[in-house]
Amino acid sequence: MLRRRKALLVVIAGCMVLLAAGLLVLFVSESKGGKDVIMNEGSPTTPTDSIVQPSAAPAAQPEVGTKVKVDQVGYGTKHTKLAIVEGEYPAEASFALIDAVSGEQVFTGILTDPIQDEASQQVVRHADFSEFQTSGVYQIAVEGAGNSYPFEIGDNPYQAALATIMRSYTLQRAGVDIDDPITGLKQKAGHTQDAKAEIFFDDGVSHKGAVIDVSGGWYDAGDYGKYIPPAAVTVAQIMLAYDLNPGAFPMGQLKLPEGLQSLEKQQSMPDVLAEVKVELEWMLRMQRADGAVYHKVSGAEWTGFVTPDTDTQTRYVFGLTSYGTAQFVGAAALGARIYKPFDHEFSEMLLAAAEKAQSFLTANPSALFRQDPGQDNGSGGYGKTTDTEERLWALAELFRTTGDIKYSDTLTKQFDFLLKRSPQAVNWGNTQLLGQWAYYNAEKTEDQWKVMIRKAITSRADELIVQTEADGYLNTLKLTEYTWASVKTGAANGCLLMIANVMQPNETYEAAALEQLHHVFGRSATGYSYVTGIGSRFPVVPHHRINSSTGVLIPGLVVGGPNRYGGDPDLDRVKDKLAPAKAYLDVRGSYSSNEYAIDYNAPVVLLASFFIE
After folding, report:
1. Is the alpha carbon torsion for 527, 532, 533, 539 positive or negative?
2. Is the whole-model pTM more than 0.85?
3. What CATH number matches the domain at 2-154, 2.60.40.60, 3.40.50.300, 2.60.40.10, 2.40.50.630?
């Protein structure tokens, strides 16, 4: 049934005309083992008159999707279903739900009262069609506003999108040849020189010019650097998604290209864990003999928009941080639990590495961030001068994995204030929530601490609910939070709400979390789905070197999204003319709003996994 519904969407998409590139959006649907993976290639679309219009609508209508905003992936049959309608309309204005194939009107309703949305500087109303629970492909129509983009209503509308977003990590792998029949990406192994990278500094333990193997892993973003902080929080959130809902990640889900079929996959390891293992193996190579973990790997200069195999400059291992080392501990200790049923040897390797890194942290209690001249000339900084939240996470994961009370004793003596404090959403600079979650779920954690942690997290969830209810688009973001990686932050807030919901079930938490996913997938003030290849209108020129140099738009890349503060020349020229929620440009040069990063994808993977049945 799901596959037939996807086929209907193919028919609709086939009628659409691409304005930006003159290409068709191709919905490539392959079925294996009863699971569908949809890879959308090309540019955002504007439907022509071949898209069915409601019979009552006037001849002249706004372009499809410009005033009626929906989740362009879809809505669960039993979930709350809201569209956002922009503009001024008469009191008691109505909307209609239209079957996108037959053109029949299947549901009608009245728009809510107008809301002045400060973030978008728009007057908006909501169209609530939650009562309608029949599977199919539909559009929302409002007289004077036109139609929404088509979307699915179904029992598992996010299944294909989740697989697409996860699969993008495969196509970000460094050091391997890629020949992918689904996307058409074909490129030679990039940065094989990472197997002989040079240490950039000398501190008495590491020696400048020494050669080490730091090959493999994923490229971090639109550049070719590889960084421990975003790597750690990325793999942690994906493993957490698997831990909480393994049914969302079946075997064969990612349809890995030939040549990248790993031994782990053949040994009945789910695709998601086989892919995450690629990054964990790289992280293990970044640890030195005393347990400390290097900060990053990159060239000394920024590359142009070239394919990875043609960037032949010497690669260097830069920096060393206590907060990155602590994040390494957290991710490795978590991995030791997750991989134990599938690969006992790898599990033991991860735990040993985590304990060695923790020994380094114990011996070096002060925050450490090594910064050498020239370190950031060809790569991102990812700098942070504190490490308390990361040390909390490290100890909590080790305690949960080993049950050794020494980790709990240290944690409660040194970081009890963090256990009680309301957390931020998870990001590369703050892993407090991961630490609280791990300690809350440890078998030997005393009830008093669980009560404190639950109160801290649900208190933050309650704050997010207040913000959501005040926002016309039901977003958790304050005006000041439309900054670098705002889409990631919104999705991560949704994850926090769902973690609170696991601790203390609350329908309001779950509903608000789902609204954040709708924003990611196109129910946004800009009308964009912020994930390449997913939806009807999505980024087509992300700041991404592989895309630019090969001409292949990899589906499933989450971009940064609206950033009212700018940070690149393109966005800086227009940011002051744009509302905070609309400060986004789908142009190559806008790295402050249109670049992808592995840690942007991670909370979307985790959030979507909560809504997979």
Report:
1. positive
2. yes
3. 2.60.40.10
